[in-house]
Design goal:
CATH architecture of one domain: Orthogonal Bundle
Order of helices and strands: HHHHHHHHHHHHH
Number of strands: 0
Strand content: under 5%
Largest sheet: none
Shape: globular
Helix content: over 70%
C-alpha cells in the first residue's frame, strides 16, 4: 500500500470514529429528552413524587445529563453498557442473546441478495436496451417504490394465509435442518432481500454501463476482445469502487429494514429488543442497540470507501 492510499484510508477511519462519537452524543441527547423515564414506567402513574424522586436517585437519573453521558460513553468504550433499568440484567447479556439472530438474518439476506443483484446488474449492463433489460428495470422500479412492511404483508397473505406454505411469525431461529431453516428465514429474507436486490441491481448496472462507455473500452473492443472478456477483465476491475459503494449502501439499508421486519414477523433479534426497550423506557438498552446499528452503518460505509480507494488504479499505480 503506497503512502497516498494509506493517508486516504487513515483519514476515512478517523472520520468514521469522529462520526461515531458525534452519533453517540446525538443518541444520548435524543433519549434524554424523551417524555417520561424508566422510574415513571416502573412505578406507574399512581406513584407519589417522593417515591419517584427516591427511585430516580437510586437509578442515577437525578444527575446531570453531561455526567451521565460521560459515564455512559466510558462504559461503552470499555464494553460495559450498564444494566437495564427495568429488569436489572446487564445490557451486554440482553444483546448477546439477540445479536447473533440479527446477524444471521442479515448474513442469509446478504448471501441471497448480493450475488443475485450483481449478476442481474451485470447482465442488464451487458444487454443494455434489450427486452431483458427493460423488463428488469420495470420490475426493480416497482419494487423500490414499495416499502418493506407492504412487501412483508403481501408475502404473509400469499405464502402464509392463502398457500399455507410458511409460518406467518418466526418465534425462534430453527437450524436443525434445511427445511426448518427455510421456514424460519423464507419470509423475512424475501421481504428484506427484494428491496435490497432492486436497489443494488440498479446501482451495479449504472456503474458497469459507465465503465463500458469509457474510451479505453472502445480500444479494447477494437483489439477484438469478446463482450464477456471486456466486461470481466476490463470494465469490472475499474467498477469495483462504485459497485462496493452500491453494496455497502444497500446493506446499510438492510440495517433499517431489519427493524420493521423483526417487528412484523416477531423475529427474536436485536431490533425487536430495541423496540421493546423503547416501550418500557429502558434507555440504557435503547442507547446500546442504537449505537450498534449506527456503528454497523458506519463500518459498511467505511468498507465501501476503502474498497473504492484501494481499487482506484490512479492511486494503486502512482
Amino acid at each position: 500500500m503506497n503512502s497516498a492510499i494509506f493517508r486516504l484510508v487513515a483519514g476515512r477511519i478517523a472520520s468514521a470514529v469522529a462520526s461515531l462519537l458525534a452519533v453517540s452524543a446525538v443518541v444520548f441527547a435524543i433519549t434524554a429528552v424523551l417524555p417520561g423515564d424508566a422510574a415513571e414506567e416502573k412505578l406507574g402513574q399512581e406513584a407519589t413524587p417522593e417515591t419517584l424522586a427516591a427511585l430516580r436517585k437510586e437509578m442515577g437519573l437525578d444527575r446531570s445529563a453531561a455526567a451521565r453521558y460521560l459515564d455512559w460513553l466510558g462504559g461503552i468504550v470499555k464494553g460495559d453498557a450498564g444494566k437495564s433499568v427495568v429488569t436489572g440484567v446487564p445490557v451486554a447479556e440482553s444483546i448477546k442473546s439477540r445479536l447473533p439472530n440479527s446477524l444471521l438474518l442479515a448474513a442469509v439476506t446478504t448471501a441471497f441478495a448480493v450475488p443475485l443483484a450483481l449478476g442481474l446488474g451485470i447482465l442488464c449492463a451487458l444487454w443494455r436496451g434489450s427486452t431483458f433489460d427493460r423488463m428488469t428495470n420495470m420490475a426493480t422500479v416497482a419494487v423500490v417504490c414499495v416499502p418493506e412492511f407492504l412487501v412483508a404483508t403481501l408475502a404473509v397473505l400469499v405464502f402464509a394465509v392463502h398457500l399455507k406454505w410458511l409460518p406467518a411469525l418466526s418465534y425462534e431461529v430453527e437450524l436443525s435442518s434445511p427445511g426448518a431453516m427455510l421456514r424460519s428465514f423464507a419470509l423475512p429474507v424475501l421481504s428484506l432481500g427484494s428491496v435490497i436486490v432492486a436497489q443494488m441491481l440498479r446501482m451495479t448496472r449504472a456503474a458497469v454501463i459507465d465503465q463500458l462507455s469509457a474510451p479505453y473500452i472502445e480500444m479494447v473492443r477494437l483489439k477484438g476482445a469478446s463482450a464477456a472478456r471486456t466486461v470481466w477483465f476490463h470494465a469490472l476491475p475499474n467498477a469495483i469502487g462504485p459497485i462496493a459503494n452500491a453494496v455497502a449502501l444497500s446493506l446499510s439499508y438492510l440495517l433499517g429494514g431489519v427493524i420493521i421486519i423483526e417487528v412484523i414477523f416477531n423475529y427474536p433479534g436485536i431490533a425487536r429488543l430495541m423496540v421493546d426497550a423503547v416501550t418500557q423506557r429502558d434507555m440504557p438498552l435503547v442507547q446500546a442497540c442504537t449505537m450498534i446499528f449506527c456503528a454497523g452503518y458506519l463500518i459498511l460505509v467505511l468498507l465501501a470507501d476503502v474498497c473504492g480507494i484501494v481499487a482506484n488504479p490512479r492511486l494503486r499505480h502512482r
